[in-house]
Inverse folding.
């Protein structure tokens, strides 16, 4: 009888795990609403770390946060952190393997700060959560 009970318990645990995994809501990038808080010009400078928030829907309070540390000499710019300064972001590609990310700044000071800092870097990573740069429910990386 013990064998039967153990097998039944294992089957129940397996069923509960599958049922739980299929009913878990999918997390999507959580983006701060642009109008809530303006950001300082220091956000246009790529950093040695990035905090990525995820929630059940965009513009909701985060349900999870992932921290990334940059590789040496390859800082990270979280593009959504500078949405306040940006008028438009366009991502495109030229076959076979050229990708282009265009940022049009709405703020002259932010443009100048970005141009000054970005031009001094050999390479940096841009993380996006923007329509046209990656699927709606994902983040993308550009370098």
């Amino acid at each position: 009888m013990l064998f039967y009970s153990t097998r039944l318990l294992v089957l129940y645990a397996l069923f509960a795990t599958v049922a739980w995994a299929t009913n878990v809501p999918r997390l999507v990038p959580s983006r701060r609403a642009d109008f809530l808080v303006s950001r300082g010009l220091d956000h246009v400078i790529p950093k040695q770390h990035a905090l990525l928030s995820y929630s059940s829907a965009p513009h909701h309070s985060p349900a999870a946060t992932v921290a990334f540390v940059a590789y040496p000499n390859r800082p990270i710019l979280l593009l959504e952190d500078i949405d306040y300064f940006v008028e438009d972001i366009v991502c495109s590609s030229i076959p076979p393997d050229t990708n282009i990310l265009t940022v049009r700044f709405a703020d002259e000071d932010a443009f100048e700060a970005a141009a000054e800092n970005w031009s001094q870097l050999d390479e940096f990573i841009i993380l996006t959560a923007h329509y046209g740069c990656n699927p709606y429910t994902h983040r993308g990386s550009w370098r």
